[in-house]
Write a structure and sequence with these properties.
This protein is 54% helix and 9% strand. The chain is an alpha/beta fold and 407 residues long. Helix 1 crosses helix 2 (65-74). The radius of gyration is 29 Å and the shape is globular. The model has no long low-confidence stretch (mean pLDDT 89).
């Protein structure tokens, strides 16, 4: 095979050490370095001594990040590659052979780099992903409150729609502080909840002990702390994305996509999607919202969706399920797909559509324009007419159709 890169370096990266193999026209040299910063700087100097233009490594956990930070600062081109794309033959696996194999593949131009954004976007990603994990943790704590209430024979969740609403939260704090009288607890109801005062009194009549009070007090404090952290992260993310507010508004115009979701999409995709993804199909494939390829002897077989960016994929699927009752194009697409293939596949289809829409909005600098709930009916108008005629005729009716006169 032709040599594409004359001076290349392949690395087998681990938590405590890195095995590096440099291949040049003069030959190859292999060394092992510790992952502490002092020794990583020695590794960079060693790469520069051999005048390597490209460095490749596996995307192993987060262990590639320290070396990428230094390579980026030195201006050396690097490729972080999916380990599945460069597996060596079984029975020949050692750290040295892995590094040598990676260097050979890189030298012959057989590696495809994963999408590694710049340092600012990597930090933004870390913030947004951490915020999402805290939001999920807060949801778990709210569910835990429901379990504690069930253990105390209190059915507050059966009466109120949001157990962490203003009225319900005041009732929970009063219970944690020692209040047991259902009538006094029900008096905390506000606005429309006052109409359910009798139901509240019945639901708040339970067996509350010190254990339940202690649990409620602890969980409520934890939820308050998590809410403060989420608010702080919201402000930090908004500040870092302040220069891309127009793109945030474009994404926010898509049904099912709120501000937080738009911020997450910007963090995962970056601010220049056209440079990274030539088409919307490339972007959807990278996100893992397309089926894999499974073809043999000219026959296409069923295949699962690819493993892509799990953070973006899960967020888009969650947004897709939120539009199932919406009276718009995406809602119609969800219901149309769900009726034939089920809700899970409908979520994937709508998430794919959302990402394609996002690509065109960001590249064309346009706002979202909905096609309408009746889009598919208009596309299939003639087939709907024929089907309706056959159905009516099967019931014994004689039907004649007259087109409306042009006004």
């Amino acid at each position: 095979m032709d040599i594409i890169i004359e001076r290349s370096c392949g690395m087998d990266v681990h938590k405590d050490n890195i095995t590096a193999c440099v291949m040049t026209t003069e030959g190859k040299e292999i060394k092992t370095f510790s992952t502490k910063t002092v020794f990583l700087l020695q590794l960079i100097d060693w790469i520069k001594e051999h005048k390597c233009s490209h460095v490749a490594m596996e995307s192993t956990s987060v262990y590639w990040k320290p070396i990428v930070n230094l390579l980026e600062a030195e201006g050396i081109k690097f490729l972080v590659v999916n380990a599945q794309h460069m597996k060596a033959l079984p029975g020949r696996k050692t750290d040295v052979k892995d590094a040598e194999w990676i260097a050979q593949l890189l030298r012959h131009g057989l590696l495809k780099a994963s999408y590694i954004p710049n340092r600012n976007q990597r930090e933004l990603r870390e913030l947004v992903r951490y915020r999402r994990s805290i939001i999920e943790e807060r949801a778990r704590q709210i569910n835990r409150i429901q379990k504690v209430l069930e253990g105390a024979n209190i059915k507050l969740g059966s009466v109120v729609s949001d157990i962490m609403g203003v009225s319900a939260k005041e009732m929970l704090r009063a219970i944690a502080d020692g209040e047991e009288d259902p009538e006094k607890l029900a008096s905390f109801a506000r606005r429309t909840l006052k109409k359910k005062k009798e139901e509240l009194e019945l639901s708040l009549n339970g067996y509350i002990h010190n254990h339940q009070r202690m649990m409620l007090k602890t969980i409520l404090k934890h939820i308050d702390f998590l809410t403060e952290q989420i608010d702080m992260l919201d402000q930090e993310v908004a500040q870092r994305l302040s220069s891309y507010q127009e793109d945030i508004e474009r994404l926010d115009s898509i049904p099912g996509v709120a501000t937080r979701m738009a911020e997450q999409m910007m963090a995962e995709l970056g601010n220049n999607v056209k440079a990274q993804f030539p088409t919307s199909a490339h972007m959807c494939s990278w996100a893992g919202l397309v089926p894999g390829h499974n073809e043999s002897a000219g026959k296409r077989k069923s295949s699962k969706t690819k493993k892509g960016n799990k953070y973006l994929k899960s967020a888009l699927i969650e947004a897709a399920h939120s539009v199932k009752g919406s009276k718009n194009y995406l809602g119609a697409l969800y219901r149309r797909t769900a009726s034939r293939k089920g809700k899970k596949k409908a979520g994937i289809v709508v998430a794919h559509a959302m990402l394609r829409i996002a690509y065109y909005l960001l590249t064309r600098k346009e706002m979202y324009v909905d096609l309408g709930e009746d889009y598919f009916d208009k596309q299939r108008q003639q087939s709907i007419v024929r089907h309706s005629l056959r159905r009516l005729e099967s019931f014994g009716y004689v039907v004649s159709i007259k087109e409306p006169e042009a006004s």
